Amino acid sequence: MQPDLPPLLRFDNLTLGYERHPAIHHLSAAIPAGALVAVIGPNGAGKSTLLKGVAGELRPIGGHIHLPEFGRKGIAYMPQRSEMDHSFPVSVFDMVAMGLWHELGPFSGLSRAQRDRVGHALEAVSLAGFERRPIGSLSGGQLQRARFARLILQDAPVILLDEPFAAIDTRTVDDLMHLMLHWHGEGRTILTVVHDYNQVRQHFPTSLLLARELVAFGPTAAVLTDAHLARARHLSEAFDDNAPECHVEEAA
Ligand SMILES: Nc1ncnc2c1ncn2[C@@H]1O[C@H](COP(=O)(O)OP(=O)(O)OP(=O)(O)O)[C@@H](O)[C@H]1O
User: Fold this and answer.
1) Which CATH class is domain 70-185?
2) Is the C or the N end of the chain the one with fewer CB within 10 Å?
């Protein structure tokens, strides 16, 4: 963590959920600019929900998400992989080029320079030569590489990654982890949902442990303790999915 920097993103007594049933409640935390944060917790803890809230896919039921000055246009969000990613009928080139959407007009094609940038992004994830392949023909690891290439082109100061390293081969995990650490080195702020605590200990300076509420947030070694993990398990098991919105008064 870099506590002397002003926070870039702040959650203030934040409650997020679905049809007014909270999935995360009363979360307060401040994410410093440039932080690399592992968002961790048991299944169903609310990790994906938090990223959806920051990305603007869910409106808070209560509390606030204070965004950076540049707003959501500076936030790139990579959701979990879904079947739809694979069945979408486009070539690898076109899928990766979608990362440039923010630079393109409604009917404009790609300039020569933009086509070159797509080529470089594909090279950076070792997919040069795959340009014309339909994405449906890619392996899971290759598809994840293509999704990272699209993120390279988005060039966002804030990056949200939901389980980017799940169910892919170790070589691809290593390559994509390297890319993510490179983005961190460039000063981007990154929130990544991760399940593998060894990866978290090894690569993430900061962790946010969720179990429907905040269990711990700070330097990874201080968050990933047996006591915190036991509390997270307990809170998750005790949570009622159909609970109505609760009203906790903020401390005066
Ligand atoms: N679209 C939805 N509609 C209703 N409830 C949902 C929806 N998406 C998630 N939930 C519920 O919200 C809670 C938190 O889910 P979420 O996916 O955020 O957890 P998670 O920590 O990312 O879990 P996992 O590690 O299993 O991916 C769960 O009880 C889940 O069933």
Assistant:
1) alpha beta
2) C
